[in-house]
UniProtKB/TrEMBL annotation:
GO terms for biological process: enterobacterial common antigen biosynthetic process. Residues 399-420 are annotated as: Disordered. Residues 32-374 form the Acyltransferase domain. This is Acyltransferase 3 domain-containing protein. It comes from Gordonia aichiensis NBRC 108223. Keywords: Cell membrane, Membrane, Transmembrane, Transmembrane helix. GO terms for cellular component: plasma membrane. It is a multi-pass membrane protein.
Amino acid sequence: MATTLVSRANEAAAGAVASNPRPTRRPYLHHVDLIRTVTFSLVIFVHCLTQTTDEFTSLPVNTTSLLLHFTRNTFFALTGFVLMYQNFDKTDFSALSFWQRRIKLVIYPYVIWSAVYWVVNMWLAGKLTEIPTSLTNFFYQLGWGLSGFQMYFLFVMLQVYLVFPLVVWLLRATAGHHLIVVGVSLVLQFAITATITHWNPPASVATHWWHHYATFIPYQFYILYGAVAAVHRQRIGTWLRGKGWWLFGALIVTAAIAVGSYLGGVWFAGKPVHDNNSAFYPTLVPFLIVAMTCLYAVGLHWAENRREHAPRFARAVKYASNRSFPVFLVHVLVLTLIMYPQSGGTSWVRDVIPQPWATLVVYLATLAGSLLLVEILRRLPGALYLTGRPRIPFRKARTDRRVASAPSTERPRREDAVVS
């Protein structure tokens, strides 16, 4: 019975097997490449924006950041989608084998880069000589994803990997009732965000309460949303077709609600311009859902209708998607080094380059520098531990370029498989 339910939920893979007498891998989801590329690019942009502006007093910057919080949640929805696509129909799925295979791709880079960022922060603070006596601080930061301001993403991802077997069990056990599961999760999401933004915890709880953003709990709906979307991707894809204007209208309306609520709080309720909990405003939830749905629809439309007609762009998307995770790991280091030169106590960027050009220049420089660093790291021994991706031998550079220019029907190598 379980096998029947699983097979029924993955019609696309079943169709591919039926049309080919030899077993094949699951169809490669090219739209996921575009979604991942856009998501990671915008996450990096937000970091560059906040580092090159006064995020604590600028209303336009915080309004922009408010809406771009959808990238954070898309990151986790994409994780749920990819993991479920790869594992839902596996009749021999094992939690232990899943953990052994997936966790190493994140935990090694997480520990290594947490150490790198901690050392860099000690250097910036002029405390390099205190490193041997400050290891307790390092392990504290390691335990909460605090070494770099993007490292909590990886910390949460590790938690998602730990609970993912339960998600597989849940969706298999509730086959035919996934809409109810998503609905319950959405109600819970509103309750969680309301608690985060409106509850003042007692002192005994407040010490650890502020770490809520580094747990999977505030993102539970988006993880499940992505996982359910993977199971029903064919039906969802069919439903999305022809609804571009409806989606655009929903995006505008929900964005207006989110921004209007934020501005109203600042102008009339005395709320601060910059709020560390802005990513968890309950009024932002509808926009987050619609925004990631719109991005999915755009990616699907591109993959089905535009990709084969723009091969250069398709190759660029595939390249960017393949490098996105290691670029995410290193970009804060590159950004820090770009912003480090000081002029009168502030970064030279703010004094020399006017806005909005400062943000644009730093963003492009961060992307270029990160890609260059990743190309080096991917070719070093131990690349898997440094970048979470397999090593690329130097001698295969030309071969990789030929593979990238191959016809779109060619199946990607295992190392190019969708990884989140």
